[in-house]
Design goal:
The protein is of the alpha+beta class and about 375 residues long. About 45% of the residues lie in helices and about 20% in strands. The protein has helices spanning about 10-15, 25-45, 55-65, 80-90, 100-115, 120-160, 165-170, 195-200, 205-220, 250-265, 305-315, 330-335; strands spanning about 180-190, 230-235, 235-240, 280-295, 300-305, 325, 340-350, 355-365. Helix 2 packs antiparallel against helix 4 (about 80-90), helix 5 (about 100-115) runs antiparallel to helix 6 and helix 10 (about 250-265) crosses helix 12. The two termini are about 55 Å apart.
Length: about 375
Amino acid sequence: MEKHELLWTAPEHLRSTGPNGFLRGSQEGDAFSFAIVLQEIVLKESPYFMNDTNAEDIIKRVEKGERPPYRPIVSGANCPQEINFIMTSCWAESPAERLKFAQIRSYLRQLSKSSGHEKNNIIDMLIERMEQHAQNLETSVEEKTQALVEEKKKTDQLLYSILPKPIAEQLKRGESIPPELYDNVTIYFGDIVEFTTLSAASSPTDIVTLMNDLYVQFDEIILQFDAYKVETIGDCYVIVSGLPRRNGQHHASEIAKLALTLRSAMSTFKVRHMPEKVLQLRIGLNSGPCVAGVVGIATPRYCLFGDTVNVASRMESTGEPMKIQMTQTTQSILAFLGGFHMELRGEVPVKGKGTLMTFWLLGTNQSDEGELLAVKNPPRHN
């Protein structure tokens, strides 16, 4: 905004700008603006014409709040006493001391009557318009503020879908997010069995619809647990518990119960373009230390690094359809916590690790069918 465009702006608004540098507004500020307009009418000249000062200096002096306040010079010879009273009362330094528009209208109507021009008076018409603007100002500001709040909510929701909420809040505050080591977390890797074959028999649009339907349901289920969806890569779904909020040893039980619930959800999930098709998951779990941090600036992602992540991936890839394979580390934690049915699978060759002793997670003590939680009203996609 050019400096000369601020000559009508009240000092309190010059000192306090809104978001993105926009000037705030108020009825008291409008009264100040009206006083400057009145000076233009009286002198038939631009604002502060007789002050013989450039716009930038004028704005600085008005904003500074000098004593007496810096205002347009209007001589008594050029301005009737009554108009001068209205003008000076409207550009008072304190907003509370300025005339209200109802008072301004009353004064000007008295002047109109005394001059015999009660109707069609240009000043009266101007006041009427200014008063209408003042009445609409608060409504307009409230509507725009509400719209801004709603847009901020949408932005926050999008940010929280990309990053964990505590991490997102730190970034919003302008804080740096250094990588952090977590001593013990549990990581879930899961994918769809024979997804390549399914993709070959489906159109790209059908695959996108399928993955969206499936992941929407998975996202709703995750909300029931102390877990965070790290990412999805094609048909691979990665979840972690124990970070960024540490939860003792319960990360293993949270991921175990979540894995059982996701597996159970497959019995009710419908593939839209292949209603007869029953999807199967292959799931792998592993517990241990890992490093987590935000990677990237333009499109930041919260990523996990470390051997724990790699082994969890191997537990999935060496698993079997509709089974949950886990390492001995995860099995030991679940055994300590209690409440889970587990079965030894035996030694499994794992790339880069030789052979590892692994176990199957069968279910919990709370369910004969081996599922702790049924999905509450799972979405059905017909």
